[in-house]
Specification:
The protein has a domain of about 160 residues: NADP-dependent oxidoreductase domain (TIM Barrel, Alpha-Beta Barrel), CATH 3.20.20.100. The strands form two sheets. Strands 9-8-7-6-5-4-3-10 form an eight-stranded parallel beta sheet, covered by helices on one side. It has a two-stranded antiparallel sheet with strand order 1-2. With about 325 residues, the chain is α/β, with parallel strands linked by helices. Helix 4 packs parallel to helix 5, helix 10 crosses helix 11 and helix 10 runs antiparallel to helix 13. The protein contains 13 helices and ten strands.
Length: about 325
């Protein structure tokens, strides 16, 4: 075999990818390296049918995206099925980092060991894969001792069906409890945190959670990164809310503060000749420990606007101004 025929190493492949597009970011202390924007599957099987879902994921992959986020509760598991069908038809499972969540589905609610294990295997079947790259605990189930949940997750990791895991909807104190319990049990700790965080919803994360995430070295994946679409700029009056099935979720942001944030986003977007959504996501990417905001697209043609955020470099003044108007 000549040197030209030798298959490239993982490092060589990553170097080529980096040269072609934005550098991938590492999730905490894991080996997972991801595109700085996670494509959410929360609309797959709900407002997006099979063809639309495939188009969105194809467009995302064409932008260099490799990080897909879903949950066993999204569209009653239909989201996982559609993602699995797409990976199988494109034969790209090894190129994709799959994150899913368990704890909220009707079939397997909560985080008791047997329920969690059953939920993970059900997700594997729907996704048509032999492993989940990043498993989130979708809820903080205080009715179950952390020891039970952590031991169950560790068993799944040792079995190779889960690679890494993280928390969601956990307070800073509960993350500390989980880390202490992991150390005492000698099991795998969390590497990631998915939390509600965006330009207009900041207080919940920027206090205690941000401090704990930094101390524990957690990779942060903000969910609701575009505030249910409000930070795309498509909702500027009450009459706009009826134009989209998710409009009601954005209604609470139609106030003086919300309009000030949109005005500032408009100014920055115009300066960079980019979309309002890209600026809102780039602001998140400028924050410490944020690896990849989680955002959804309802149509394939929206993906490029979202992906533009990963190469958008905001100035210090622009970041400070966005900080100011959203505080």
């Amino acid at each position: 075999m000549t040197q030209l025929e030798v298959n490239p190493t993982t490092q060589e492949t990553e170097a080529v990818v980096a040269a072609r597009g934005p550098q991938r970011r590492r999730i905490g202390f894991s080996e997972l390296r991801v595109f700085p924007l996670a494509m959410s599957g929360n609309v797959f099987g709900w407002t997006a049918d099979d063809a639309t879902t495939n188009g969105i994921l194809d467009s995302y992959a064409a932008q260099g995206g490799n990080f897909i986020d879903t949950a066993d509760s999204y569209a009653g598991g239909r989201s996982e099925i559609m993602i699995g069908n797409w990976m199988r038809s494109r034969r790209n499972r090894n190129d994709v980092v799959v994150a899913t969540k368990v704890g909220k589905s009707h079939e397997n609610p909560g985080l008791r060991a047997r329920v969690l294990t059953r939920a993970v295997h059900a997700s594997l079947q729907r996704l048509g894969t032999d492993r989940i790259d990043l498993l989130y605990l979708h809820i903080d189930d205080e009715d179950v001792d952390f020891d039970e949940t952590l031991l169950a997750v560790d068993e799944l990791i040792r079995a190779g069906v889960v690679r890494y895991f993280g928390g969601s909807d956990h307070t800073g104190n509960r993350l500390i409890e989980a880390r202490i319990a992991s150390a005492q049990l000698g099991v795998a700790p969390m590497v990631a945190l998915q939390n509600h965080y965006n330009l207009i919803h900041r207080t919940e994360y920027e206090g205690d959670l941000a401090h704990v995430a930094a101390r524990q070295g957690l990779g942060v994946m903000p969910r609701f990164a575009l505030a249910s679409g409000f930070l795309t700029g498509k909702y500027r009056a009450k009459s706009d809310l009826a134009k989209n099935v998710r409009g009601a979720e954005a209604a609470k942001y139609l106030n003086r503060r919300g309009f000030k944030v949109l005005a500032s986003l408009d100014t920055v977007a115009a300066a960079h000749d980019t979309s309002v959504a890209a600026v809102a996501l780039a602001w998140l990417l400028s924050k410490p420990n944020v690896v990849a905001p989680v955002a959804s697209a309802s149509r394939p043609d929206q993906v490029s606007d979202l992906a533009a955020a990963v190469t958008l470099q905001l100035t210090r003044h622009q970041i400070s101004e966005l900080d100011r108007v959203s505080s």
